[in-house]
């Protein structure tokens, strides 16, 4: 991420110089229109949460949602609903930490925690970032392969060679998207938001084709259920549920969101203050709306993935455990257009989420270690694991799902520091979390740890 994307708060007025100053301030919260800001100004604040939301509809979501829907029908829709509720809370807290302190989550960890703790958190964050980037880059390569691979294979190219070509093409595409940040953060945000829009339209089209049972889907979205036919299917449903959680509540984007709000924070404090009102409070109101809209949009897209897989595959007795198999199966079931739209959605997801993953990786390494790390070098280094996997011919879908389980285990290492920091008056001042928010945060951590523990037990006993 360039410096234009992760600036430090440079305004040093007595009122906003530090969180400690916020504690003694007499801010009062008012409606934006009463603070001298136009109502339509809210639209200019849409962006950070939409960039973060890309991580919630990345290729890892395709993998877990397709297998979950094809194996268990609508049964796991409730996982997405509750994951989305946690995502809204977590992403808002990350943005709030960045807005109030003017620092990213990794920078706050380095500032407020001991050196050994900071290093341990950095290692966990890097593991999450590597797993994320692996899944997202593989997804982009698969998207290119599904769209252009058949023609190349027909002209005598090998499958491995075609996939490697798709990976190189993906790398160049991500480099081009990252370069947009040089023109300003809003250009990058607009492109990412366009990708999100295309993915949403693609899955809207898929759902239109399958004619789901909305009543049954609503029931399973509200009522938690797991497979109970056998020990194996129960274990698999838990495994997929944990993977869906890891794919929906992403640790790397928790770090990133606190950085995405920084450019607008500088813009907010470049505006003239209005006596008696808080510019931070105004920004927090707008960002809450941004988070709510973006996260619910991602939830609808994820739900559409499961609904499509449940109807197109499960209702026809097909258990699809491979993204390429899903592409091949959709054609005969729903027509060539459905398969093409699926590939386009996967490509848009892979390219946008891979871009966001690289940005997150840069925020992580710079924030925890207090170094400058070129974002293009970060992209170049993180390509290597994906290229190796493609070259040796490993199953991309299995790697995608495994990466999401890894992310679920890495999530507490991002979430717990975030909660600790946002709960501290010394860090957040009068903006520290309310009792209800603290309870919601710790309940989210407890749910994640419980699911992970259950999965570990299942793996240990081999059921």
Structure write-up:
The protein is mainly alpha-helical. It has a single domain, classed as Amino acid/polyamine transporter I (Up-down Bundle), CATH 1.20.1740. The protein is built from 19 helices and no strands. It is globular. The two termini are 43 Å apart. The N terminus is likely disordered.
Estimated share of beta-strand residues: under 5%
Helix content: over 70%
CA gyration radius, whole angstroms: 22 Å
Mean pLDDT level? 81
C-alpha geometry: globular
Q: In terms of quaternary structure, what is this?
A: single chain
Ends distance: 43 Å
Contiguous runs where pLDDT drops below 50 for at least 5 residues: 1-37
Annotation field: number of helices: 19
CATH superfamily descriptor: Amino acid/polyamine transporter I
Task: Fill in the CATH topology.
Answer: Amino acid/polyamine transporter I
Please provide the ordered H/E string of secondary-structure elements. Answer: HHHHHHHHHHHHHHHHHHH
The CATH architecture: Up-down Bundle
Largest sheet properties: none
CATH class: Mainly Alpha
Q: Please provide the count of β strands.
A: 0
Helix-strand makeup class: mainly alpha
Number of domains: 1
